[in-house]
Amino acid sequence: MSFEWQSWVCIACLGCSYGADDIRITESGPDWSCLGKGAPLRTTELIDLELPVRNLPSRQLLKQVTGSICADVSCSPPLAVAEGIDGVLHFPQMDPMFRGSIELRSPDQMSAIVDLLRPIGAMRELPELRMLSKSNLETYAYLGAMATLDVTLGHALFWVVDCAGKRAAGISLESFDKVLPNTQSYYASDIELPSITLDRTEENGGGGIINLPVGFPRFRAVRAADGAVIADFPTQIKADTTTFFLIEPE
Questions:
Q1: Is the peptide bond before 57 cis (omega within 30 degrees of 0)?
Q2: Beta-carbon neighbour count of residue 62 at 10 Å?
Q3: Distance, CA of 169 to CA of 108 (rounded, Å)
Q4: What would the pLDDT profile of 151-199 be if each residue is shown by its tens digit?
């Protein structure tokens, strides 16, 4: 089975009629129908992972990139290593029960971890494999969150999707663990700039945290409107590294 990374693209189809009074435009919110039903495997077959790796914010493929499949925090030895071919990593015959992380290295980019929060065979979408330079993260953090990067700490960027795998608005991320005085969280506005005035995700479903303690801080994602828990989980944070993770409903 081949499992390819896909970007999230929303295509709205509007019905048309002859009379203006007959036109109705309805907006539907995120789909949470799967909440409380766990994360069943979508396949039991071995999975061929084809994973493009792109730069933030340009979204261009990174031609020089190395990816390592890691079962634990040491990643020593990695379960598999792949060199990007035209910016795409290929990991064949992956166990659908694998749950770990993918470490990324590329010239002029910050080290990155893509943390898989559930087995790959149970994921609706794979997290986007992205990397960014330290200067880009510094600019992004300072302009939107008024934060300065601490090289002894780690950083996180996340996206939230609903039961249909679409980016989800209205989700707040809460921390179970103590944060540091210079820890700063933010959500990405719909013009894709960080904002510390937002208290929940917008339509793009994104956000991030600057200066997280190294280790496995635990988080809970909730619907801001009613406090319903979408997911709770730990994520891996390393010093001077950006961790990317995708939050799916549980």
A1: yes
A2: 23
A3: 32
A4: 999 999 999 999 999 999 999 999 887 788 899 999 999 877 889 999 9
- Give residue 68's identity as a one-letter amino acid code: S
CA-angle at 100, arms to 201 and 219, nearest 5°: 35
- Tally of residues, the chain: 250
Ranges assigned E (strand) in 47-160: 47-52, 54-55, 66-70, 80-83, 88-94, 101-105, 111-115, 130-131, 154-160
In this structure, which CATH number among 2.40.50.690, 3.60.9.10, 2.60.40.1120, 1.10.10.410 belongs to the domain 30-247?
A: 2.60.40.1120
Find all residues with CB under 8 Å of 160, minimum gap 6, and list them.
167, 168, 171, 201, 205, 206, 207, 221, 230, 246, 247
SS3 content of the chain, % helix, strand, coil (to 5): 5, 35, 55
Contact criterion met (CB below 8 Å) for 139 and 56 = no
DSSP β-ladder status, 47-52 and 111-115: unpaired
Domain positions in the chain are 30-247
pTM above 0.90, yes or no: no
Residue 90 tokens, joined? 């290929």
User: What tens digit of pLDDT does each residue of 11-37 get?
Assistant: 222 233 334 444 444 457 899 999 998
Pair 155, 244: CB distance under 8 Å: no
Question: Of 29, 16, 13, 3, which is closest to residue 160 (Cα–Cα)?
Answer: 29
